[in-house]
Amino acid sequence: MPTVNPPDLTQSRLLQSIVEVARSFYGAAAASVFLVDDQTGDLVFEAVAGKGESSLHGARFPAGTGIAGWTVMCGQPLLIDDVSDNPQFSRDAAESTGYVPQSIMAAPLFHEGDCVGVLEVLDRDSQPRCDLGDLDALGLLATETAAALALLVRLRSLESEFGGDNSAAGMPLLRRVAERLPTASAQVSATVTKLLAMADELLADGGASAGAVGA
Amino acid sequence: MPSAAVPGERFDVSPIGLVTRDWAWGDADGSGVRVCLLDSGVDASHPLVGGVDAAMGVIAGEDGDPIVVPADPVDEAGHGTACASLIRLVAPRVSLTSVRVLANGKNGTGAALLSGLDWAISEGFDIINMSLSTTHDKFRDRLRELADRAYFRRCVIVASAHNMPVQSYPWPFASVISVASHDGTDPMTYFYNPAPPVEFYARGVRVRVAWTGGRETLSTGNSFATPHMTAISALILSKHPMLTPFQLKSVLYLAAENVATPVGGLHADS
Q: Which residue among B131, B137, B138 sits closest to A74, beta carbon to beta carbon?
């Protein structure tokens, strides 16, 4: 599941590119991605394009807050059109983000059945629009975003397993061999030791050859 | 409940004649129909809601398993209140019960959803509104069992279709009435969808709904189309109380805008 703290550089770049695409596609005042904090349920701004871009990253809102909270709850894309007519919402929004939108469109990000975040777009441009079409498109973009986040999680997992270094891809094998060697029979132990010595010589020769080719 | 257990035995029915919209729901106001709303709760004091007959909530019992208990008729999130206001708008005299299955603004647990649904079916509600779904596969089979049980107990589940490419439940089940949105403005206009699993399109775009703090807002989404279908179903059942879910769905089909009003000899595409 994507984490909200600490943000990964690749994840930040990915989410930032997505909110910039969303903002451009809809000609919106702002687009943002919230992720749900596993521990508290808080909604955390992970990426913002447009209004609030310089100040909102990392800002937190309690679970159930606003339209993003609705979206997390019901797991459905939603569009609210006249939020600024609600004084309570306007006051809360102005205090927390410095910007009071007229409309908010939001779609959930799912990961393994859980809603782990929300993709939100504020104030689309004034071009003639189909609300249902816009909402469907946002749902598709949210699905793509969630898939990309899931891929990142898998990549991180692989990096963790292999120490984040391709040249050390054989380390788990070597660790297993090192763990089992002391308990092996004398004959097997001698054979394995001999094989390891051969591997060592081979790598030394290979390194020299590569150096020679490269020179 | 139907009493016939052997072929040929007589039982109470609501005869279906020539189905017109007037036959289906003309002069109906939802009286006598009990609707259960599984959602985030309902603010019963909101003017557009006009009170609820009961408010329940799902909490963790002593053994940790979810149980349904009486709760205050409040709704911090507002989603359930919005849905309730739409049911009341179309079917003003229905008996409305709120069951809070979405807690603290977080994704409602599937266990709470199952518990609330199980309770509502056992209580014998005529209609259960579910403007929500779960995306957890592990709840699918149990939800399907509950949906089938409701279907054979004359308990109609009206559920929001998901307009994202994700697997979610219970809306795709054949035993429920699934609803997506059209962008018309008439709350009584709905369309049959000849390409299921979504079966009906109801009003779901720029709908004026109740919001938190006694306010109102304009909302778009399948969440808000579903209460329209719930309310229209309630109107039909208030005129024809013996309809089974199978028969109700047939009446909904026959009275749908694109079925009841053929265009040029062909039925209009939805």
A: B131
Residues B159 and B178 sit within 8 Å (Cβ to Cβ): yes
Scan residues 176-215 of B and list those with Cβ closer than 8 Å to A.
181, 183, 204-206, 211-213, 215
Q: pLDDT by residue (tens digit) across A121-142?
A: 999 988 878 899 999 999 999 9
In order of their start, the domains of chain B are 27-260 (3.40.50.200)
Q: Is A70 close to B78, i.e. CB distance below 8 A?
A: yes
How far separated are the first and last CA of chain B, in Å rounded? Answer: 35
Q: What are the residue ranges of helices labelled H in chain A?
A: 9-26, 66-74, 87-97, 131-161, 171-180, 186-214
**In A, which residues are within 8 Å of B219 by CB distance?**
78-81
How would residue B37 be classed by pLDDT, with cut points 50, 70 and 90? very high
Q: Is A124 exposed, middle or buried (0-12, 13-18, 19+ CB in 10 A)?
A: buried
Q: Which amino acid is at B242?
A: M
Does domain A9-161 fall into CATH 3.30.450.40? yes
Selected for mutation to probe chain B from A34, A38, A65, A73 (highest B CB count within 10 Å) is: A73
Contact A50, A192 (CB under 8 A): no
Q: Is the ipTM of this complex over 0.90?
A: no
Return d(Cα B248, Cα B241) in angstroms, integer.
10
For A35-67, write each residue's pLDDT tens digit.
Answer: 988 888 888 889 999 988 777 888 888 877 778
Predicted pLDDT at A209: 45
Specify the pTM: 0.82
Selected residue of B39, B107, B178, B226 to mutate for chain A interface (largest A Cβ count, 10 A): B107
Record: contact B135-A107, CB cut-off 8 A: no
> CA A89 from chain center: how many Å?
28
